[in-house]
Design a protein that fits this description.
Helix content: 40-55%
Distance between the termini: 27 Å
Mean pLDDT: 95
Low-confidence stretches: none
CATH topology of the largest domain: UDP-N-acetylmuramoyl-L-alanine:D-glutamate ligase
Number of helices: 15
Oligomer: single chain
Radius of gyration: 21 Å
Number of strands: 16
CATH architecture of the largest domain: 3-Layer(aba) Sandwich
Number of domains: 2
CATH superfamily of the largest domain: Mur-like, catalytic domain
CATH class of the largest domain: Alpha Beta
Amino acid sequence: MEYREFLDLIYRRYSANIKLSLDRIVELAAELGSPQNKLSGFHVGGTNGKGSVCATLEALCLAHGFSTGLNTSPHLINYKERFRIDGKEPEIQTLLDLFLQYQPLFDKYQASFFEISTALAFIQFAQKPVDVSIFEVGLGGRLDATNVFTPEVAAITTIGLDHIKTLGNSVKLIAAEKAGIIKSGISLVLGKIVPPALDVILQVAEQKKVPTYRYGVDIIGKSQASDIGGITFDFAFRDHQFKGLHANLLGDHQVTNISTALACFILYSQIKGFEVKEEAVRHAIDHINWRGRMQVLSSKPPIILDGAHNMEGMKALVDTLDRVFPNVKPRFMISILADKDFSGMIELICSRASHVYVAKNQSDRAATVEDLVSEIGKYPVKVSSAPSVAEAYEMARRDMRDDDVLVCGGSLFTVGEVLNHLFEK
């Protein structure tokens, strides 16, 4: 089986098998020998920031000498990005062979695309075996396939309005779904979560008698500086204090994410009985491997790629631009999904932009160019369009002056297409 054939099969045949229940993954995992029960580590949910927390945890574990398995979603360019073992993606042939080996079971249980991906992560991490496994929740939490894994530490990063058709149309309903990863006796770390979502989560945590640690209360991260090279901040949690930490991720929101990850790692160290080493921490957070999230493609002139795809993420992006480039009105190249609040996102973008370039990415959920142009037309901002994300990127790049800033994004699909275009060049 070739890679393209595999992709066509797994998307066409298995994507329609979505069922909001854990029954199938529980039965499938049991027939696989319950590989998830051989794993220990972290389970991270939330609306935004969970991928950054997972990538930070991977860096911290590797810097302390542990072998790691990281499972995230979605992928930007290649399916194998969803899995990293010791910081490296597997060979695609390894994934194809595993899929073919277990395909009869996937068919038997009519597993969905995401259930198959989660099962492949369980199998790979158990076969290695890795010391620490890190799982990012795919959607929600309560009924997410990753929720059959029991971690030593769980984290919920933020709660916002996203995936409302599946999770619910209120912050309280979404919080209840995210809180589904809370398990009795398992330490819980909370990022920057505000009422009423916080109230829902704390109520579940109390019912399950879970030790809970909150950013801004138990965990302190204080930004000191932010520029195109990253962020500098102070951190404190329990008896650990680190001054002047520098991270290679951009944006003050990453202070929250990295601090959340650090607190998770410190709790894990206390459960497992090893020492957190300051030198290893400093090295780790300055070498976090996480593409497409305030990723600097070029510093002269600045070109930034970011996957912000909802209002909370877009606000974090705009706030970062205000701080790092206070006197510049950037150019934006965007393609946004139609089922997101693209009107609100465009309003935020146009409050900051000098020129917006639009295209329709290859997702069947993408908003049309006409709809995006019409929405941007409500604001006093130049707008241009192109037939593809790659062409819109090149158009914006050609228009840039030396003192310009270009920001590309609006969707992780858009980010992936930009990266793929640059890779092919």
